[in-house]
Write the structure tokens for this entry.
Amino acid sequence: MPTRRDFFATSALGLGALPALSATAAASGASGASISQQLAKTDPVAARLYETIRTMPVDDTHCHPISDRDRVMTRDSFIERIALPAFPGPNYFPEGVYDKWHAGDERTRADLDKRYQVGKKLATINNHFAESVFTKFMVKEMASFLGCEPRFEAVMEARNAHQKNYYGYVNSLFRDTNIENAMIDTGYADGLDAAGVRKFSDAIKPTRTRLIARVETIQDDLLKQKLSFPEMRDAFLKRVRDALDGTGNFGDRSYGMKSYLLPAVGVIKPVYDEAAAAKSYEELRAAEAKPFADREVQARQGKTFLEYTLTLALEECLARDMPMQFHAGDGEAPSVILRNQQPYYLEEFVRFDRDGMMRMPKIIPIHAGYPLVSEAAWLSHLYTNCYFELSLMTPFIHQGLVRRYLEIMEAVPLSKILFGSDAYHLPELYWLAARWGKRFLTQALAVYVTEGILSEEEALEGARMILYKNNRAVYNLK
Ligand SMILES: [Zn+2]
């Protein structure tokens, strides 16, 4: 395994062969040299395309701010922060048990283990995740960047060596992959406040962060205030407008919004009927006082009211030509209902009919609708205002991305596919997504070039669109 120093050396030697690269572009993508070597062995067309694609800018259309709490990590703590089945740990036990176990002394842990098998359950999750191809591949990739042996423990040790300048390390991951814009969904901010989000934004400069406002963040805060329906409606609208135009989103303006309603309730439709929304709001408030019901019943309480506020928010986006991201596919088990997340369930919001007219706001179903990738792709094929976004699937299905990117490109115009990572907690998710996104997109495009379906120039322009140009067009970035 070559070290990071070797990559810089190889890259520096190769620079003369890359004309017209700016100093920044040349510095970024340096560790892509290992991918170049790999592709040269297996696919010369991909290897040639990759020499241009590896230094391209990347816009991440859906991602989250990174705190500095993960400066020092072990194998288990790293897995607990990155693995989708691991980080909802508290949800697997009665309320408070997980935190008590983590904070507790040996005796407390032993008591809780006897009753709930906390340690055993968490260890099972971690051990299985450690045996995933994703993890084995990630360890090699991180080792190449950090210049250490490709073992999980060695990688953690090399990573921990950066603890004193953790945000410097974070910044180096952004420079290596040349991420120019990050569209940050503040609806999940890992506990950061406005100052914390700003600190992260400053740390990753010259990457520019732009904020996306989550409908539920605004709504849930107001629900705590026990307002009457008219007060709720007016306060919600005021906050949405302030988040979009003023400083209402963590002290800044927003470039679009995100909705998390789909996984809660399944099929969703626009609601314009105020009386029905008010009735549903009263039912929601009455339900709050009742004990826990079936989780499906509970998730649907206040459905009409929630569709109504989403409708109000989407009207505001439409008026400003801003997109709305919709969570689709994926699924943060065990807290959401997996069967509710089908991309087709968004169709009525994609249409956004009113008074016999389809108004077609910009809609971005996110997470590739994974695993229902072709359903999300076909929705985007049929409705011109509906985009396709790659996050979470990128990077989590690693080499499977070649097949998935081909599946998407068979149906979605190249001008509507948006790169995204859904990076949360760990900065390596930004890096892996951009690194693997470039690599496996290159390999997918190379299939078309080899078959004579796209010219090399068309393939490269497709990569530019997917990696950054489409993001700039959909959000009207200058
Ligand atoms: Zn997300």
Remarks:
- The first helix runs from residue 4 to 14.
